[in-house]
Each structure stands twice: as structure tokens, then as C-alpha cells.
Amino acid sequence: MELPVLIVKGLIILVIFGITLLIATYSTYAERKVAAFLQDRIGPNRAGPWGLLQPIADAGKMFFKEDFIPAQASKWLFILGPCLAMLTALMSSAVIPFSDSIRFAWDKINYDIPVQGIEINIGVLYIFGVVSLGVYGIMVGGWASNNKFSLLGAIRAASQNISYEIALGLSLITILMMTGSLSLRAIIDEQATFFEWNIFTQPLGFVIFLTCAFAECNRTPFDLPECETELVGGYHTEYSSMKLGFYLFAEYINMFVSSAFISALYFGGFHYPFMSLVNEALENSMGAVTGHNIATLICFVVFFAKIFFFIFFFMWVRWTLPRFRYDQLMNLGWKTFIPLSILNVVITGAGLLYDFKYATWLIAIVMIVLAVTSTSRAPKRETIAQGTV
Amino acid sequence: MQLTNRSKQVSNKEMTLAEKMYLPAVVGGLAITLRHFFRKKVTIQYPEVKRYLGPIYRGHHVLKRDEQGRERCTACGLCAVACPAEAISMVAAERKKGEENLYREEKYAAVYEINMLRCIFCGLCEEACPKQAVYLRHDRMVPVFQERDEVIYGKDRLVEKMDDRYIRVNNSEVKATPTEPSLTRAAT
Lengths: 389, 188
Fold this sequence. Notes:
The complex is a heterodimer of chains A (389) and B (188). Chain A is mostly helical and 389 residues long. Chain A has one domain (60-377). Chain A contains 14 helices and two strands, in the order αααββααααααααααα. In chain A, strand 1 (101-106) and strand 2 form a beta hairpin. In chain A, helix 1 runs parallel beside helix 12 (288-318), helix 2 (54-64) crosses helix 10 and helix 5 runs parallel beside helix 13 (326-353). The longest helix of chain A has 36 residues, at 3-38. Chain A is globular and about 65 Å long. Chain B has 188 residues and is α+β, with helices and mostly antiparallel strands. Chain B has five helices and five strands. Chain B has helices at residues 17-20, 23-37, 78-82, 124-128, 155-158, and strands spanning 61-63, 88-94, 107-115, 134-136, 152-153. The longest helix of chain B is centred in the first third of the chain and has 15 residues, at 23-37. The termini of chain B are far apart. In chain B, 15% of the residues are buried.
């Protein structure tokens, strides 16, 4: 690989890394703002204009807290826990294609460098591997704390992640069947036209995937590992200072990565309607190099708009829904999502056989019809006279 | 007995398929929270914006002067006796010749101190005062203090300034607290 290619690649990686951290930082701020707005409040507005320096103040506070390790804790594992959580969270953004490619001329040769940490043909598999490693951070930390509540939180996290990873994988298989590739860039390129976005071809898969992503990120309504009402603080009960900060930060990075992953898989990634027309017009009017780079920039912005919407959605749901009970969580995962996603795989396969992409709408329509009829046929709620119970 | 008309009947009936899918309920909930997102916020930005607390709010103490600018307090000590928190202490002194324009009566308070850490702002001193000398202002609060020696308020901070006279808004609906006697018919 030539030197300029290497430099540009390194720059791209650094920028992606920086953006990931920046977005995770400001997600904490956004979370508090969104929570406040959904609850008719204003939220942080004292540190800097509109409270924009709040994350920095929070981080400063975290750094100056006492870094405490319990006497009975297994010291190295206790330190390893948050490091693992942070490491796996940061690693997963490497394969996500954030935009098309940067073009530059060197020695009269045009180079196209994709805006992506690394383009590998097993991108989806890589993300799955790294994400399932993420549970070790929680598991190791919770176990090493030598605290019953931490251990219970860690066990909950582990069993929840394992249960939902199955449904997550199965709902993804349909996309892999339709694309025939594990490369994220190939999956995105498959969705070039608007009505071929996977949200339109795989509506059921999308709902399952989204819900499982919530469970994988330990976000409400599936935040049982850190369920305050039952488990004090869950797996991070014994953590303080920046170790706790790492856990909380890793959660926001995970949220960012899964938002990016969802928008790449189901919402066409950096594609937007009439993109090819815009690209052509730009390249014709501003030259192949500048025009292409500006088109790439637009793609980048579009992709981030999608990501921000999903981050907002994560927060929106968090401040709307109450937490599931643990048996409800397991029932939903094993008894509903896994059978449904297997059915989804079968129907998609049949659809591919007859060359009909929108086959899974069949399941959705059948489910809606069933739901409507069952509601209309259900007996009216018997009213219990007050005072008799 | 029905207390409100908002109570909902509960039943243990098995959920229908639509309810088991959660999705309609989830979407409904999301719509509700989104409506709140755009609603007007109820927050009052406290130190910058202060809310009117009503004409009977008991805030900062003030030692009134009469209409000629003479202090009304005669250091009788009834406020100190009435004070349940024992926050008030005073030293009485006799008025000298030539001080008639400073103190209304022959006896006055040379030292009048209120310990703001002890004060519970109950307003009993205000009720006990026979000379209408001590009041709790409705429009000003005792500021936050950081040091212990800021806590005891002497006459320098309690006696009413002539350029900043305190008049309680006379609200006919409020009968619970003694109203300010108009400055023209000051009690003797």
C-alpha cells in the first residue's frame, strides 16, 4: 500500500474514532435533555450555553471521585471489567461504512478510499463477534466485585444477551439471504433504490432486530442488569470514579454503534433517494475529484442524520416504557422472537424462490388481521363493581 | 365510594393477541411522550426568574421606621420572648437628647440581632410586636450564606433603609397576618 493511501486511511480511522467518542460523550448530554423535554422540564442548562459543557463537567467530576476497589474483590479482574466493556464497544465501529469513498489524485492515479475503518467481507460477523464479547466486560466486572447484587446483575446481563443474540442473528439471516454477502458495504449497496431499503422488504425482521438491539445494549425496557429497584446498581454497584464512567460510556458507544448498524442494515446506510442523480450532477459540474468528495460528504451527513434519529429513538423509548419483568423478558425472547424470526427466514426463502422480495409483508398482514379479529371478538372487560373486591 | 372519575376498572382477563404483541400500546406510549416533548415547559429558572410568592410570604426581616424615619422598635423584648427558636437578642438603651429624630420613643434597641441559622421564619415576632416594628418581608428572601459570621444579622442589615421602604401590599383577601397600618395613622 502506498504512503498517501496509508495516511488517508489512518486519518479516516482517527476521525471515526474521534467521532465515536464525541457522539458517546454528547449522548449523555442528549439523554438528559431528551429525558427533560419528554417530562416537561428543561434539563441541564447551567454549564455553558444550553448546558453544552455539561459532559465535560460530568467527566471532570468522574475523574476526581475516589477510585475505590473493594477489599474482597479480585483486583485485576475488577480493573479488567470496564476496560473490556470499553474496548469491545470501541472496536465494533471499525467495519461500519460511514460514507462512500474519498477520492484523491496522486502521481496521476486516482485513489478511492472507502470511508470505513476497514472493509472486510465478513463485517456483519465481525460486529456480532465483538458485540457478544461485550458481555464479558459486564460479566467479569460483576463477578470480580464479590457482591451479590453485582453478580445477579451480571448473570442477568449474560443470560439476556445470549437469549436475544439468537433472535438478533436469525432476524439478520434474512438480510444475508437477500444480499448474499456478509459485507456491510455490499448490504448497503444492495439498498440503492428507496423501495429496496430493507425496512420495506423486511418489516418484521426490522421490528425484531430493533427490539433485540435494545436488549443487547441493556437499554430500557430491557435494562434489567442495572435495575436499580431490585439490584442497587446492578453489575456496577461496586464501581466508582472513571471505572464506572467507562461502563456508562461503553453503553452510549454501544448505542451509537447499534444505531449505525440499524441504519446501515435497514435504512440504506448512506443512501438517500435520488443519490445517483445528485452524484452525477456534482461530478459533472465540479470535476471528478471535488464533486465526488462533496457527494461523499453529503452521504456522510445523511448517514449521521439516520444515526441521530435512532439514538433519539433509543432515548425516546427509554423515557416512555417501564422495565419488563424478567420472566416477561425471557418469554418475549424465546417464545415470541425466535419462532417469529424462524418463520421470517422460511417466508423470505420462499419469496426468494419465486423472486418476490416483499414476501414477509405476508406475515405482517396475517398478524395484523389476527390481532384485529382477536380484539374485536374478545369479550368486553367484565367490570368489577367497586367495593366488592 | 368514588373519589375521582379517572379511576379505571382492572380485570385479570387474558390479553388479546393485539395486547400480547405490545406494539399498539408501545406506539401509543411513544405518541404521548412525543406530545410532551413539544409542550411548554413549566420550569422557572430560579435565580434569574423569581416567582411571586403571595402577599403573606414570610421572608427577610425588617425593622420598620415610622413616616418621619424614626425607628419604631422600643426594645421591649416581646419578639425575643415569642421567638420559639430563640433567634432574637437585643440590648436596650435610653434615648439621649438630640436623638429624637432617630428613635420614636425614649427607649430603643442599641443592638438588635437575629441569628438566621436559628430563625424558622414562623412570623411570631411579627405578631408579638406591639409597636409594629418587626416584619417579615413578602418580597425578599434571606440570601444564602457561606460563612458562619455572616449568619447573625445586626441592625445594619435589618433596619429599613429610607430609600428602600417596605410596604406590604394590602390584599383584602388576606386576613391572617396583620396588615401594615397606613403610614399616616402611625401608632403612638
